[in-house]
Amino acid sequence: MERLVGVETVPCILDVSFLAQPDVSRPIIYRYRDGLLLSRVRKKIQELLDRDGGGFRATTPNTLIQTVKHAGLFDDYVPYFEWPKNRSRALASLATGVLEELREGDSQKVVLFAPENSNLFDSAEWLQATEHCLVIEEAVTSAASLPEIMKYYWSMTDLPYCPLDRGLVQLQLLSLEFDKRYPRLGQFISAVDRAMLLHYEAEGGTLSASCLTNKDAVERSNILRPLRRLLENEPEAIEDLVYAVEIKLRRQLLAADEIAVQMFELARDLLREDGGGDEPSHAAEDDRLRKVLWAVTCLVGLPHLLRTAEAMHELVADPPETFLAQFDLLCRDFQRRLSCDSRNPFADWWSAVESILIRFEQGCDMPWPSSEERLLSALSESLAGLQGKTDKAPWVRRLATIVRRATAVRYRRQIALESLA
Prior knowledge:
Elements: E1 2-5, E2 8-11, E3 13-14, H1 15-20, E4 28-32, H2 38-51, E5 56-58, H3 64-70, E6 78-82, H4 89-103, E7 111-115, H5 124-129, E8 134-137, H6 146-156, H7 166-175, H8 178-181, H9 185-199, E9 200-201, E10 206-207, H10 214-231, H11 237-250, H12 256-272, H13 282-311, H14 319-339, H15 350-362, H16 371-384, H17 394-420
Parallel strand pairs: 3-8, 4-7, 4-8, 5-6, 6-7
Antiparallel strand pairs: 1-2, 9-10
C-alpha cells in the first residue's frame, strides 16, 4: 500500500495488516494518529524479538542516534523510541540526525513509534529514509482499507460466530457507508460490533435491512451526547441523560435490562475510543480516567439498580419512574465521585468490584459474552494503557492489578476448556 505525503507516495503497511503478518527484519517506523493499536503493535514486535532470542529495550533522546548506529553490535537487542507528541527545535534536530542514519541504509534495526504530527515527518530525509525502513501506518477506515480492516476485525472479535460469506457483510457495510460514517478505527469496530450483535441474521448470513438506519444512529446519539456531557461534569447533563432514557422506556417500550445493556455497550465504546499512546496530554489522561470511573459505575451500579427496580415492580404504580429515579441517583453518585478531591473515589466499592471480577473469571464457559463481560474486557485494555500514569490517581493502580489478574485467570481457564472440547 502507498500513502500520499505531500506530493509523493510512501510505501507502507497498515497496522491491522502488520499484526496479521509482522516483519521485524529491518528498521520500523510506526506512524499513528489515535494510537488505538499502538500497544498491540508494540507487543507483537516484542513477542517476535523474544522468540528470536533477542530483546526490546527503550532508548532516550540523548542516546538515540548512537543507538541507531550501533544497536545490536554488542548487545542482542533492538532499541525502540517513543517519539514525543510535542514539537521543539531539539526534536527537529534529533529527527534530522536519526533520518540521516536511516537514509544510509546500513543502520542497525530500530523501532520508532511516532505520532503523525511529530517533527520526524517534516523533512525531506523522511521520504528518503523510508526506502530502507518498514513504514507502518495507522488504518483510517475507507473503501480501500476496508478489506484489511475487516480481516483484522474477524481475527480479534469476541463474537461466538462469523458469517459464512464475510465478503457479503463487507459489501453491506460499504452500502451503509460505514467507511464514511466511522472514519476512526475505534469508532468503526464498535459500530460493526453493534451491527453484528443487533442486526445479524444467522439464517441468511447477512445483516438485516434495519441495520443502523439513520433513526438508529439518532436514537443512539440522543443518549451518547448527554452521557459525554456527564463525563465532563457539565450542568444539566443528568437531566438530559435521564430524559433520553425515559424516551426509550416509555415511547420505545424497552425493558430496564435492555437499557442496562445499552449503557454497558456505550461505556465500552467510550473506553475503546482512547488510543494506546504512552504520553497522552493531561486533558486526554483525565478524560480516560473519567471513562474508567464511569465504566466501574456501570458495572457496580447498574446490576444493583436493576435488582432494586425489580423488587419494587409490583409495589409501585409506575415501574419506569422507579427505574428512572434510581438511574438519576446513580448518575448523581458518579458526579459526586467525579467531583470529590479523593485519591480513592470508590473506596466503598472494592468488595463489589472483586465480586464482579470473580464472576468474570468463571464466565468463560458461556457461549456468549455478556455485555458486562465485554465492558470488562475493554476496561482491561484501557487500564493497560494507563500503566505508569497513575500518580494523580493511585486507585487506578489497584484497579488495574485486580482486573489484569482476573483477565489472566479467565484466559487460562478458557484455554483449558478449549483443550477439553
